[in-house]
Amino acid sequence: MPSELKIRIWNAQEVPADWFKRAKALDESVENNVKAIIAEVRKNGGAALVKFTEKFDKANVKPERLRVTPEEVKAAYIKVIAEQVEALKLMKEKVSSFERATLKQLGSATLKKGASVQTVFVPIQSVGCYVPGGQVAYPSTVVMTTVPAKAAGVPRIVVCSPPDRDGNVNPLVLVACDVCGVNEVYRVGGVQAIASLAYGTEAIAPVCKIVGPGSKYVTMAKVLVSKDVAIDMPAGPSEVLVLADETAEAMFVAADMVSQAEHGSDSVAGLITTSKKLAEDVAGWLAKMAGSAERGEIVQKALQTNGFIITCDTVNELVELANVFAPEHLEIMTRNPLAIADKITSAGLILVGPYSPVALSDYGSGTNHVLPTGGFARSFSGLSALDFVRRVRVVDYSRDGLRALRSHVRVLTEAENLPNHSRAVEVRFEE
Predict the structure, then answer these.
(1) Which of 123, 275, 278, 346 is most buried, by the most CB atoms less than 10 A from its CB?
(2) Residues with active-site annotation
(3) Which residues pair with 329 in a beta bridge?
């Protein structure tokens, strides 16, 4: 039976000016609550982790049980099926292959007579990967956050994930950690996990960088600790934006919007189209699918709260709105999708054509699904091995090479009134 789903349908000129400002979810009340939790973790360490795990996850976990043991990881294999393990191994291999190739392409050197400048990549020494839990477990996020770090050569990889009410981390998450070679796993979630990774407790040593998606509270925590420890990006509630014309299949569009909506009630799913008929057809399919979908309550709430359909008069208008929205996932289902993709300046990931759904990129294409959300795709990229290395330039000049630039250095050091810089060069040519 079709649901009573009421999704917003606007003409491009009717869209409210603040509709695209999704980062408004990071409001002052969220910030104040998160600050208080971080402060308590910094002050009380493991005791605060135990307190907040009981408060938010309803799990009684003693300080000595915060770290998952090798025996628990081994036992987790008994609770999953072989096909799941093989699927995780395939995902790991595809992501790893893609990331190794990315790093291999980036080595560079400038070589001239008496001069050598090379770019080398040095791995970050420790990384904390946040893997959400709660209503759904995300073993795929283990792969997406840890495998690029492994490909980059990070020696210490830590995973934090919230426990269930019995104090256990999802077994498939633990298996994924084992498959991916994670060094440490902790049954800690939410803001308290981010705080412990940033500042350390008796149980968890701090890391150099924190990566991974999460709720608006986790996202705010990452933003707040970023003054003290590096983070990947603000990655909050998941989102998809579909660009389509009259050639698109309405059922495909609706299915992809529903699939994104099931992540959580704060997920964002939108369609921008040049076809009024497609807009109507997609709205009809959404009502049908949301009414019969598993996790239907979550799907309907997400679509009614954050779902939308916008009709445009021209393709240029469609592209302009997409770049303003700067979506996490952008699907393009048009007559000539590559031509539109070339005009996109702000998107976490672009999926072209009717057979490249978000579900493929989440689980099978080898690309990373940890992507900037909330409009941050204007300035951030998706997670990759590049997030786990530092670029270091190695400069090696001979005496003749330095001599060739001697006067150039003198002129500019004099212009900036830094005479000792010039002197540091000149002293090398004195007899």
Answers:
(1) 278
(2) 328-329
(3) 240, 349
